[in-house]
Structure formats: structure tokens, C-alpha cells
Amino acid sequence: MSQFAPAPELPQHASQPPYILALDIGTSSVRALLFDATGTALPQVISQIPYDLTTSSDGESSVDADMLVELVAKTIDEALTKAGPLASRIGAIATDTFWHSLLGIDKDGKPLIPVLIWEDTRSRKALAELSKQLDSQELLKRNGARLHTSYWPAKLRWLANTQPEIMQKTAQWLSFGEYMQRCFLGKSVCSLSMASGTGLLNIRARAWDTQLLPVLNIRPDQLPPLGDIHDRVQGLKPEYASRWPALRDIPWYPAIGDGAAANVGSGCVTEKNWAITIGTSSAIRVVVSPDEVVPAAGLWLYLLDAKCGLIGGALSEGGNVVAWLEHTLKLPPLKEVEPQIANMQPDSSGLTILPFISGERSPGWHDEARLTITGLNSHTTPLDILRASLEAIAYQLNIVYDQLNTQLEKLEIAPTLIGSGGALLSSPTLQGIIADTLNTPLYPSIERECSARGVALLALEALGTIPDVADVPVELEDPLLPEETRHGIYVQAAQRQQELYDVLLNTKRVN
Fold first, then answer.
1. In the Cβ-directed half-sphere of 264, how many Cα atoms lie within 13 Å?
2. Rounded to whole angstroms, how far apart are CA atoms 148 and 128?
3. Alpha carbon distance 27, 31 (integer Å)
């Protein structure tokens, strides 16, 4: 297929109940979508409300918990209105949301702080302090996550150092998904998926890490009870039961991490299909047995459920870099300038960019890293910077891809790389850059709502409507094939990026 061919439209078919109302809660918008019994989205039933995070130059990235709950409620209002008579045949509510968020609530269930997002790097000094007390490699083996500001340990130590009164008043620490359920239903389940993204879950034991809690001065009762993805909660609180009578007594399944949901929704639930997602941030993830894998230092290991792990690496950059460039350089939206950047030759700007707009996660885990551009001259244009930034993100993803290949080489399979995420699927140019840089075919998913579809499929499995999400057919566009000459150019440019990385951060990557 040509790089510039439009995405095919989903086939029209008669929808079948039970319907699943899927809540997709991201860091830039919240959405409610309706899926039928085959896992197909009903295009006429979708509600989306954008919002802005609270950010600051010192690294804050947060959102008011109750404001976000009300935004979710408004999307439910609109989706139910659009669903009309179909609303009475909704069989379950399913939710995906951003991993790693942290919220403290008091004994009355009221938030004591805003929801801290994974991008919040204000805990950098606390992280350095913890790093002297704890062995990050041992934590990686036990909990699947190293010490980093994106996880709970560093944030909890930072709060203890800067807001000790909050620590004293906090009755429980939650992710946003659990808080939302408590607002609507008065109770919640913390899925193993969400818990695995905190850095506080012992992956092997499927239980909170009792060795780590005393170091953070956290009691076991301050953490929520754990459950699995099929553990339901139902029975809306009176104000929401009257607001949404169609949802009064139907099951709500626990929130799972948006990345795990995207794997399911794009058909990447086996070791042969690897998911690459570029939305606000970027990641490559592979489903594995969590008891048989210890991730390399540049990677992490989370859980989809009690049986399935996800090994991979996540960048802190993706569509957020594009959004920042559009705002700062006054560029039109990427879709409008796509033809212009598509016609540029690989690495034609000569720029070298470290794209760390929100610090670095995989593969090097440097919180203090920041976006850096070198090679600017009087002929450099904003579009040069945009194209070079897309290439820079691809070089970082290639490191993750190589580490995963090394980690999983015993599988002796040629993985199929399946692309999802709004930033990736909306840019054929970025898709081509990824295929050429990673030197592998990239298969864009036909499904544009992979995370929401993923939790809808899991809910259908829990209801017994489909036997196994792994058996759901995978629908893909024709692959973008790598071209050897372009790959060679990108190898040289990636080497320049690595040299700049080593100079500025005065270190080699973790390995």
C-alpha cells in the first residue's frame, strides 16, 4: 500500500448486543465509546472531551481528580444520549486509563492532592535519595520497574519530604481508575494491571511489595485491595443511578493500563505480535509469561492480568513533542503539513535531537534529560525541526526494539510489528520513518480505537460473549516496508544522536 493511501473504512454490519460502554481516559482527553458483541465500535456513539494538565517548569504534571471524574461523567451522559434505545442493552462498563498515576485520599474518600501523572518529575531529588537506599536492579527483578520519577516510590518519598501533613492524613493511595469507580459506585477494584504500573507490586507474588513499603513508611492498609480484570463491581451510588438508570446494576470491570488495553485491542496478545503505540507518549510491548522473564535494565515488566505479562519500553515522548512544536513554532497541525514533510529526504536537515520533552524513561531512565536540538543554522525551517523530531523519536524506539529482540531472541520468531495510537496512525510519514529505522515491516492497525476496544473485548470475554480475546481476528492494513538506503541513513543519524546523548548526560545507557 502507498504511504499516502487513506485508511480503509470499517465494514458496515448490523450491531449485536450485549454492548460495552468503554471509557478511555487519557492525559489529554476522556472518551466514551460503545462497542457491540463482536468488539466493533458503533461510530455514531462516541463522546470526547479534551482537557489540559496542570504543568510547570519545575516538572509538575497533574490534574484535579474531581474535575476529571466530572468530565468522564459528561462523556457518559452524551454517549448514552447518542446510544438511545441501545443503552438498555449495555452489558458492562470497561475502562482503560493512564498507567502510574498517584492520588491520596482521606478517611472520607476526598482527594488530598491532585492526581500526579507519570510525566510529573518533581520527585527527582527524592529519587536520588531513594537510589542510595535501594538497589534499583533488585527492584526491577522483583517488581518489574526500576526506580524512576514516573513510579510511586519516588513520588511518595517526595511527598513525605515536602508535604508530610499529606502523608499523615492519607487513608489510601489510589490510581485514578479506582478513584473514579469509588465516586460512581462507592467501591472499587485495583486491577493487577494498574498495580503493576506503580512500581510497588511484586510481580512474582502478584501482591504489594512488603519489603518496599516500610522504606516508604506506607502501611499495607493504605494500598487498595487487589483484583483481576474479571472482578466486577456494580450498583451505582444513588445520584448516578438516577442520572444513568440504564447503568444502575450492570457490572463495571476494573480499570487497566492503557498500554495493556492497546495490546489487546490491536491483536497483540501473543508473543508473535508486538505492539508499537505512539500517542502522547510511545511504547513497544510484547505479551509474555511474567514468571519466565526478568526485564533488561532499559525495559519494564507489567501485567495484563494474573497470567499475562507485558515486557516493553516506554518513551516519555511521542505526540507531545509534535504538540509542543506546533504550539511553540506556530505550525499548522501535522495532518496539514504531512505532504511537505513526506517529501523531505531522510535526515536532510542535519539536525540532531534528543526529544526528551518530559524527561527520559526507556531506554536510559534519566529524569533530568530535556529536549535538545543541535545543528541549527540560518536555513533551518520549522518543518525541518518537525521532521527531525519524528526521526529522533524513531531512533529512541529502535533502541527499545533492539533490546526486546535481544531479550526475547530465544523465541526464535520473526515478530509482526503492529502499529496503533493516534499520533502514529494519523501520520503515514511517521509510519514510514518507523519502518525504515527499525528495518522491519510495520502493519498499521485498521482499528483506530485500540485501547477502548481492548477493554471492551476483555469485558466481552468476562461476560462469556467471546471465549478468548486471543481468538479475535486481527485486522491490519498492508505493511509499510523498510527501504535499505533510508535505513542506512537513519543508522548514521541515530549514531549522532547517541553521541550527543553520551556527551550531555555524561553517561552510557543502562544495560
1. 28
2. 9
3. 11
Decide: helix, strand or coil at residue 90.
strand
Cβ proximity of 118 and 26 under 8 Å: no
Contact indicator for 445, 420 with CB cutoff of 8 Å: yes
For the question of whether the overall pTM of this predicted structure is more than 0.90, the answer is yes
Taking residue 406's Cβ as centre, other Cβ atoms within 10 Å add up to 12
| Measured distance CA(275)–CA(349) in Å, rounded | 30
Is 42 part of a structural domain of the chain?
yes
Q: Compute the mean pLDDT over every residue in the chain, rounded to the nearest whole number.
A: 94
Residue 320: domain span: 268-444+481-511
Contact 364, 296 (CB under 8 A): no
What pLDDT sits at residue 105?
Answer: 98
With b meaning 16 or more CB within 10 Å and e meaning fewer, what string describes 429-453?
bbbbbbbbbbbbebbbbbbbbbbbb
pLDDT tens profile 386-426 = 999 999 999 999 999 999 999 998 777 789 999 999 999 99
Residue 349 in this model has a pLDDT that exceeds 50? yes
Which class for 370: exposed (0-12), middle (13-18), buried (19 or more C-beta within 10 A)? Answer: middle
Handedness of CA 116, 235, 195, 358 (dihedral sign): negative
> What single-letter amino acid sits at 163?
Q
320 in the same domain as 245: no
| Domain containing residue 297: CATH number | 3.30.420.40
Segment (H or E) for 337: helix 334-342
CB atoms within 10 A of CB 404: 22
d(CA 364, CA 354): 12
Percent of the chain with pLDDT over 90: 92
pLDDT value of position 410:
78
8 Å CB contact between 441 and 480: yes
Cβ burial of 96 (10 Å; 0-12, 13-18, 19+) is: buried
Task: Say if CB 482 and CB 441 are below 8 A apart.
Answer: yes
Virtual CA dihedral for 340, 29, 41, 467, nearest 10 degrees?
120
Unique residue bearing C-alpha cell 444502575: 248
Tell me how far apart the terminal alpha carbons of the chain are, to the nearest angstrom.
Answer: 37
Residue at a domain's end among 199, 224, 258: 258
Q: What is the pLDDT of residues 218-265, one digit of tens each?
A: 999 999 999 999 999 999 999 999 999 999 999 999 999 999 999 999
Based on the domain organization, do 340 and 431 belong to the same domain?
A: yes
